[in-house]
Amino acid sequence: MALWSSAFVATRAGLAGVSPLAFLTARFALAAVVLVALATLLRTDWAALSGIWPHLAVSGVLINALYLSGAYIALDHIDAATMALIGALHPLMTAALARFMLGERLRPLQKLGFALGIGGVVLVVGPRADAPGDLLGPLAGFLGVCSLAFGTVHYRKYCRRAPLRIANTIQLSTAAATCAALTLAAEDVVWTWSVPTLASLLYLALAVSLGAPVLLMLMLRHGEAGKVASNFYLTPGITAAMGWAFLDEALRPMALVGLAATSLGVWLAYRGGRDRER
After folding, report:
1. Mapping DSSP to helix (H, G, I), strand (E, B) and coil, where does residue 191 land?
2. pTM of this prediction?
3. Strand runs (DSSP E) across the chain, as ranges?
């Protein structure tokens, strides 16, 4: 979750003077080029994707392109705290979808973990959340989180046995193509180069886009979709801590209480899942 959380800090620096969808397109394209070059050097056997690559493409569009497009557009209209509150719906959405699409059931201990996760997120970001002001920001953020939940369950159902490097190559390539299409269709591109923009782009493309999805896919291979999604409750607290460390933002005592609650919630969600697997 540290990689996911650090992306918020890097994005704040990178989006200054850059339009969000163009920035996402560049981020995904750079990561995809690196993976395609690596696959070529290693003489990757693409036959391993037989019958799976359409599902990988769908999950790549949902998890990467549409989720982050919605989040970046939202952040042009609402603050990060409000977006984090919307993002806190992801574990609940994923658990609900997994119930109907995968037949996963939540034990009482897991339900308690989800409740603590929501409570912790509210404690961390609630006091700093402003009124949205218009509907575009909240709606874009909500649709992005819906996309992430659908993508998480779709990957768990159809793609969890796919080779990780190949899977990530397909997902990032389709995400880049989707973001490019969205940029051409809906955005007046603005791009002013600066050192923070370049550093942010390199970090998000090479560390976050290449590393974080692989970790998520590894977790989905070995855990239930709803239980894995509960980890995202940790993101607001970790982001608050990183903001304090790197951006000199205030870290209120209530935020520490919220982080403790989210940590306990994630532990309960995992504990409940392990109890069921025994």
Report:
1. strand
2. 0.73
3. none
